[in-house]
Amino acid sequence: MSDFITDDFLLHNKTARTLYHDYAEKMPIYDYHCHLPAELIAGDHQFKNITEAWLHGDHYKWRALRTNGIDEKYITGSANDYEKFEKWARTVPYCLRNPLYHWTHLELKRHFGISELLNPQTAKTIYDTAGAMLQSKEFSVKNLIRMMNVKLLCTTEGPLDDLCHHQKIRVDGFEVNVHTAWRPDKAFAVDDIAALNKWIDSLGQLADVEISSYEDYLTAIGKRHDYFHENGCRLSDYGIEKPYAETYTASEIDSVFTKIRSGKTLNPDEKARFRSAMLYDLVTMDAESSWVMQLHIGAIRSNNTLMFKKVGPDSGFDSMGDLEIAKPLGHFLDNLAVKNNLPRTILYNINPRDNEVLATMMGNFQGTSMPGKLQLGSGWWFLDQKYGIEKQLNVLSNMSLLSRFVGMLTDSRSFLSYPRHEYFRRILCNMLGKEVEEGLLPNDLDLLGQMVADISFNNAKKYFPMTCD
């Protein structure tokens, strides 16, 4: 059987093939948002097998396994690593037309040179072959990163993280720049007051601030923000169900904070005002430090109570939300802009209905400070597949400037996910090539090739404050 992942995978015309192979394929990767564990990079971890590298922590695969009727024992449970891999091999043939089918075989081909389709018949051979390679030094975590031509990656940590692993990576002289992104969602997680107060207590100890007022709270968070900046952070990230932009007064927020510290449950209006104040004040810190702000909007998390209690968060029980986006987002961005506190911003939506909403809203706040100051983020989570990527690119093209797009990211916890950048680039080149051959774009390979190279790497390198030279 011929290879499924050929040199011209997803490239359906001559122009697309030229654009990809001549302009995109060799471009480095600037992975400005991921969830890779910095600890594994610092220790140059060696995976013992492909299950550890591929299935541990991958909730995309976990959802597919559950949908295929696989018992939780073989997903997050007590089964051994080969048993879990074998269940994944049984599931893959049922993933046809799911992006996992493409990703699975692209990652096997790029990392291990394996061309066979994964199924129950090939499972043992593929498990043994990949496992033997992973146990060699050439396949340590740092070498996996090097293998994919990554120049910079940005992990995601909370304000309480001591960033010791990032410090070790720098001291050890790893030539790939590894930065952190500031993710302070727990600072305004007011649905669980007990957990929030525990977090505030830990923050106070770490920042050496006695936190009894909202002003104290901001002082302590600001000290951690400064600490992250001192350790190379230039990027924030907020995971929110919807933009928070309620009106409030300082005295109202002081009262709400006093109520929080007293352990009292907030009513819905108090929650909304507190979240709005916190988000505004946190983003103002970002702007004052010349950071880039990312807003990941719309995910409804941990929907399955029984499974949340059993396996915890980020385990494959999250979904798209359908809350109001447009008006609160406009108010939020405007509140920042009128005080000159709107930083470079990337907006991500999880619901495809919101592509046009975000694309048109960001156009209201572009400026002369730099091209593409506000960005429509690449297809995120449930949308980082072929259809979702194409839809995002089409909306961005029609309502903004595709040529200024900062491109793809992995948003992954797996060190084997870097072929997603290749996947994106092939889809981009195929779209452009098709329109050239339909007469919708000029057959100017220098013009189009520069655009492809810019979206693949150059634009991100220019946009973000984190250097990768």
Write up what this structure looks like.
- The structure is a single chain.
- With 469 residues, the chain is an alpha/beta fold.
- It has two domains: 14-46 and 139-463, TIM Barrel, CATH 3.20.20; 47-138, Orthogonal Bundle (uronate isomerase, domain 2, chain A), CATH 1.10.2020.10.
- The chain is 48% helix and 9% strand.
- It is built from 19 helices and nine strands.
- The chain has a four-stranded parallel sheet, with helices on one face. The protein has a three-stranded parallel sheet with strand order 1-2-3. Strands 6-7 form a two-stranded antiparallel sheet.
- Strand 8 (344-349), helix 16 (355-362) and strand 9 (374-376) form a beta-alpha-beta unit.
- The two termini are 43 Å apart.
What are the defining features of this structure?
469 residues; alpha/beta; TIM Barrel; uronate isomerase, domain 2, chain A; 2 domains; four-stranded parallel beta sheet; three-stranded parallel beta sheet; globular
Summarize the structure.
The chain is of the alpha/beta class and 469 residues long. The chain folds into 2 domains: 14-46 and 139-463, TIM Barrel; 47-138, uronate isomerase, domain 2, chain A (Orthogonal Bundle), CATH 1.10.2020.
